[in-house]
Amino acid sequence: MHELVRTVIHEALDTLGFPRGEFTVEYTTHESHGDVATNIAMNIAKGLEKSPREVAQTLADAVRERLGARAKSVEVAGPGFINISFSASFYESVLEEALRAGDAWGSATMLSGKRIIIEYANPNPFKEMHIGHLMGAIIGESLSRFFQNAGAQTARDTFGGDVGPHVAKALFGLHHSGISTPTSSKEIGEAYVYGSRAYEDSTDTHDEIDKLNVALYHVLEKHFVNENLTQDEQELYETWQAGREVSMKAFEHLYEMLDIHFDYVFYDSDTVTPGLEAVKRGLSENIFEKSDGAIIYRGEKKGLHTLVFVTSHGTPTYETKDLGLALIKEKKFPSDKSIIITANEQVGHFNVMLCALSEIEGALAKKTIHVPHGFMRLTTGKMSSRKGTVVTASALIENVIAIAKEKNEDDEVATKVAIGAIVYMVLRQSPGADIIFDPEKSLSLEGDSGPYIQYALVRALSVLRSAGEGGRDATSSRPQHQSPPHPYILMRTLAQFPDVVAYAQERMAPNFLVTYLTKLASQWNTFYASERIIGGEQQEQMLRMAKLFAQTMSNGMKLLGVPILEKM
RNA sequence: GCCCCUGUAGUUCAAUGGAUAGAACUGCGGACUUCUAAGCCGUUAAUCGGGGUUCAAUUCCUCGCAGGGGCACCA
Question: What is the CATH number of domain A120-378?
Fold first, then answer.
């Protein structure tokens, strides 16, 4: 519809000899302002040396003529808005198309032919996945779905730090507890906490962990080139491998619950070699320089931070690994766009990394975008793995499942409700903003929430089910509204769906779809409460609305990753 | 100290430079007892402060104030 209005306005401007200025077409918030409104007249009036209302009037006439029967009214209002209302027959035709499209209703082609690789979640093996990763996972998955829906060929990848100080700490802890083959993420988590404390408590253990860190890099490098390992090295390697496996298994379980399926899983250990090579090359080209035995990138010359890429121990830092990762990803999945989603605390690092990359591989840096999201902040203070105040992803999910069970004992229902509630909580606000999360109050399962939209859909599906079962029972004596306004309001909102999806995708902001679906659900609930569907006077039309609503809602929920339920 | 982000009802969040700033929670009041009450209807309540740009600013610029994050060998 959006596109239709734009086209018609452009045509009208051309025939009237008006310039094609910038303008918006927006869905109105007040019914008195029509269905859509545009500000074109106000934008071009100055250049034409006419009053905005005068321009609007001329334009409105031309637009009305072009829209013909599709328009109910085209009016000039306020300072010079042109308000357009569509006719019921036009909505009918849009919705006819929607029903025909089915699951494809809302899909688009604006990204067809494009290849997009998108990195998200990024929990680190040897640590637990916490609610911050969960937030990234949810946002990343939804954005991937939006890109796919717009026709792009997408690849999902996640990147985990399986080497580095945090791993050394965990390995140190495991060694201390005499565990050579860890079997649960709990064991590893405890080992990590132990190692972290040891790292800070004494210089001896500090040095020992540092040595372990270097040793692990060394072992992995040897393994990478198929060199024989010593007995000790072999043991270290095996413990490391078992630990990584256990962590990844736990992550996969969570991804499964969220219906996330990665095409690629990259590890730090994969990126070390290509990363170090790139930095070495860059060093000879004076992109990097040596300082205090470390290799650094002088970000300050570009107004950024100066950061270490290779430590004086010769081990690569996160920056180098990310550099290597960028090169690997491009090799595995040559793309038109590479998107990396992380929490916003990493903005500084990515600015530096991308700046360095632009000097090494300009084209690659240009198409790489870092999309930061906000923090999951606790009302009880900052999460700290040392203090044991980290809220893990699985703990959160279990918690919400328990609350959902108070209403419905069924495991599957409770799980889907919980996932829906969490996904909704994350996606309902603009992606850059922090989420203030109160672990005590947990999160809402009513009102503006995941279950609210799930429930609305459940009711619609239930109605459709009963209707399908030949449920044309007794005709109701219930009085009908004289001219029911609800179907029309619902119809109007339903027709906006593709535009909302496109808008959210362009801005990489699923919250626009969340807001829309919530409004849609609310209108459906109002409709449901006030209209008799089965057995009503206009059963056919009402059932059609139910079907359309169900189709639109489920298409939308799929884009967000909110699970669809048949019953609840 | 330097850099980045954020300040909207009591609370948690929306809003494409546009018209009357939109929800939810909480509070209070209500309806139906018929397709699922995790629902429906009603009601009170907000743009941090000062300047500026604009026909029009919650939105852009600037100066404050407040909060969060980042600033060399962590990821």
Answer: 3.40.50.620
How many angstroms separate the CA of A225 from the C1' of B8? 58
Enter the ipTM: 0.96
Could you tell me if A559 and A145 are in contact, meaning their C-beta atoms sit under 8 angstroms apart? yes
Domain residue extents for chain A: 2-86, 120-378, 450-560
By the 8 A CB rule, do A320 and A161 touch?
A: no
What is the biggest distance separating any 2 CA atoms in chain A, rounded to whole angstroms?
88
Tell the CATH superfamily of the A450-560 domain.
Isoleucyl-tRNA Synthetase; Domain 1 (1.10.730.10)
What pLDDT, on the 0 to 100 scale, is given for residue A483? 41
Of residues 322 to 381 in chain A, which lie within 7 A of strand B by their beta carbon?
A: 344-349, 375, 377
Q: Which helix (H) or strand (E) holds A242?
A: helix A231-258
For residue A340, what are the β-bridge partners?
A: A119, A370
pTM: 0.94
Residue A385 pLDDT grade (very low, low, confident, very high; cuts 50, 70, 90): low
pLDDT at A386 (0 to 100): 62
Element (H, E) at A264: strand A264-267
Q: For the CA atoms of chain A, what is the radius of gyration? A: 28
From A29, A48, A37, A124, select the one nearest A81 (Cα to Cα): A37
| Residues comprising chain A, all counted | 568
Q: What is the pLDDT of residue A32?
A: 86
Alpha-carbon distance A88 to A92, whole Å? 6
Topology of the domain covering A2-86: Gyrase A; domain 2 (3.30.1360)
Do A417 and A451 form a contact (C-beta atoms < 8 A)?
yes
pLDDT tier at A467, thresholds 50, 70, 90: confident
Q: Which nucleotide is nearest to A452 (CA to C1')?
A: B38
Dist. CA A256–CA A172, nearest whole Å: 31
Among chain A residues 425 through 484, which have CB within 7 angstroms of nucleic chain B? Answer: 428-430, 432-436, 444-449, 451-452, 455, 458-459, 462-463, 466, 476, 478
Distance separating alpha carbons of residues A75 and A83, to the nearest angstrom: 5
Tokens 């999910």, residue located = A397
Place of tokens 């860059």: A282
Query: Which residue's C-alpha is at the least distance from the C1' of B19?
Result: A78
A535 Cβ contacts chain B strand, under 7 Å: yes
A149 within 8 A of A107, measured Cβ to Cβ:
yes
The reply to whether A308 has its C-beta less than 7 Å from any atom of strand B is yes
How much is the mean pLDDT over chain A?
91
